[in-house]
Design brief:
Layout: H1 12-21, H2 25-41, E1 47-48, H3 49-59, H4 71-74, E2 84-87, E3 90-93, H5 103-136, H6 141-153, H7 162-178, E4 198-199, E5 204-211, H8 213-222, E6 228-235, E7 249-253, H9 255-288
Parallel strand pairs: 5-6, 6-7
Antiparallel strand pairs: 1-3, 2-3, 4-5
Helix pairs in contact: 2-3, 2-5, 5-9, 6-7, 6-9, 7-9
Length: about 300
């Protein structure tokens, strides 16, 4: 992953805000829209929610996020550490976050935000292209298998655990579909999914890269009284494995089981199953990056 050179901002409040929030797409896009309004119309300018929404929905896919939701901007207003505030129905950047900065400075900050997210957009496209290239190279079964294993075991995007969640789902979906069952994934990584990562007819699937006691209890409480299957890459050294015998845990699937399922499908029908797994991976990453909303 290529890094963008950090910009120097002669305002401590704004510098801290940008450093902390630059990776938070829903936050920084709202800020970027308000910043552009100030650059064009002066620092006293403000925008209504509907005006922000209109601009947000033109650019959301560049930030790999969904279309505008009211809480994206509402939850930022009224907190001292946030740059955005609200007066009546209008939102604006607080004057204290703009103090000492010229129009040229603000333009440079806007360009920095654009460059940062443009680089992420490039990385996302590269991954989608890579998956597509493996799909097109359907005859290279061994190479495609190694790619799936790499995505499952070692590859990371800027969202930690994203590759594992998407790839584990893709393997499980095809494995279960071949047995006549359906597995669905309605949310995306880090979304507010209520603790339901995957959904089957009789249970939910909860996914994590590293399972510890705290994570187990949190997931248990997120979906009370619902039977579930735990999917994980590894457990911490202190994790109490007796917890997996909980009455609401139907089963657990470790990285070893996922690799076994993959190996089983390769033995049964390698070309078809690997192609199907890659197709699911491509679709899920398009959803992750909200590319499907472009069409």
């Amino acid at each position: 992953m290529t890094s963008i050179k950090k910009i120097s901002i002669n305002n401590t409040l704004l510098s801290s805000y940008i450093t902390k929030r630059i990776k938070e797409a829903t936050v920084i896009l709202c800020f970027r829209i308000l910043l552009q309004d100030i650059i064009e119309n002066g620092r006293e300018s403000s925008m209504t929610k509907s005006q922000i929404e209109k601009q947000f929905n033109k650019k959301h896919y560049l930030y790999g996020i969904s279309r505008f939701r009211t809480d994206y901007v509402l939850r930022q207003a009224g907190f001292d550490h946030n740059a955005i505030d609200q007066k009546n129905d209008n939102f604006f950047i607080k004057p204290s976050f703009l103090q000492g900065l010229s129009k040229k400075d603000l333009t440079q900050i806007a360009l920095y935000i654009d460059a940062y997210w443009n680089q992420i957009s490039i990385e996302q496209k590269q991954l989608l292209d890579e998956i597509e290239s493996h799909l097109l190279d359907n005859g290279n079964t061994e190479g495609n298998i190694e790619f799936i294993k790499e995505m499952l075991l070692t590859r990371e995007t800027r969202k930690k655990g994203q590759c594992f969640e998407v790839t584990s789902f893709s393997i499980l979906k095809i494995y279960l579909r071949n047995l006549g069952f359906e597995l669905n994934r309605f949310s995306t990584t880090y979304s507010n999914d209520g603790g339901i990562d995957f959904a089957a007819q009789l249970a939910v699937y909860q996914v994590t890269t590293k399972l510890d006691d705290k994570k187990f209890e949190e997931d248990l409480n997120k979906v009370p009284l619902k039977e579930r299957v735990m999917v994980f890459k590894e457990t911490t050294g202190t994790f109490d494995h007796n917890k997996l015998k909980h009455e609401l845990v139907l089963d657990y699937i470790s990285i070893e089981e996922l690799l076994n399922f993959l190996e089983y499908m390769v033995r049964k029908n390698a070309e078809r199953n690997i192609r199907d797994i890659l197709e699911v991976m491509l679709h899920e990453f398009q959803r992750e990056y909200y590319q499907s909303e472009l069409f």
